[in-house]
Write a structure and sequence with these properties.
Elements: E1 8-12, E2 19-23, H1 27-32, E3 34-35, H2 45-57, E4 62-68, E5 71-79, E6 95-103, H3 112-120, E7 130-135, H4 142-145, H5 149-162, E8 166-168, H6 173-176, E9 182-187, H7 193-203
Parallel strand pairs: 3-5, 6-7
Antiparallel strand pairs: 1-2, 2-4, 4-5, 5-6, 7-9, 8-9
Helix pairs in contact: 3-5
Length: 210
């Protein structure tokens, strides 16, 4: 499948200055920008910066960033699901995963996450994909935000809705292990019926295992 990537950008005003939301970003531009030291949710900042550059190099990899001047203060990643996850078992070239989204605490509450998703979906090529995200409460910054799991889940859901992702049921054991965990997805306008059926089979793989 051909992976077209059309760059889009949007400027948003925040109390801490104007932010540019842009992408998909080229690996070269990504490597050239500063990476904020508070982006620590997944791994140390220098390692995460390097990981994002690698994702941007993948044919299907997409990185949308939020930039304050020359510094990345937030990002969202899209790439094929991890080979160890059930979502890769269908070997679907039109199923990609929103793998990570992070915004530094200083800019939270400024609609940065929501706008990262809005800019992601400005690219018409996204209509060729089933885009999924798996939300696990143990990845959430409950301590930093002071929210409980249900308050945080509500915020995550609202943010994903801004990108057109909706809740989908699944029997995936990890997602089913806690009621706050969830699968969300957006099925692009040009996705064929066969792909939608294959996605449904991936969602309910334990259906006949009684």
């Amino acid at each position: 499948m051909e992976h077209k990537k059309t760059y889009n950008a949007k400027e948003i005003k925040t109390p801490h200055g104007n932010i540019i939301i842009e992408g998909p970003i080229t690996p070269e531009k990504l490597a050239d920008l500063e990476f904020h030291e508070d982006l620590v949710a997944f791994r140390p900042p220098a390692q995460q910066h390097k990981a994002l550059v690698e994702i941007a190099r993948l044919p299907e990899g997409r990185i949308i960033i939020a930039r304050h001047r020359h510094t990345i203060i937030g990002y969202v990643t899209y790439l094929y699901p991890d080979p160890l996850e059930r979502w890769s078992e269908g070997k679907m070239d039109n199923l990609i995963e929103l793998g990570a989204i992070e915004v530094i605490s200083k800019f939270r509450g400024c609609s940065v996450g929501k706008n990262l998703l809005v800019v992601s979906m400005m690219d018409d090529a996204m209509e060729d994909f089933i885009i999924i995200t798996t939300e696990y409460y143990w990845h959430w910054d409950l301590k930093g935000t002071g929210l409980n799991v249900w308050e945080y889940r509500k915020i995550m859901e609202k943010m994903m809705n801004a990108g057109g992702l909706e809740y989908y049921a699944t029997d995936d054991p990890e997602i089913s292990s806690h009621p706050a965990n969830c699968l969300m997805a957006k099925i692009g306008k040009r996705v064929d019926t066969d792909s939608i059926q294959r996605f449904d089979q991936l969602r309910f793989m334990n259906r006949f295992m009684y």
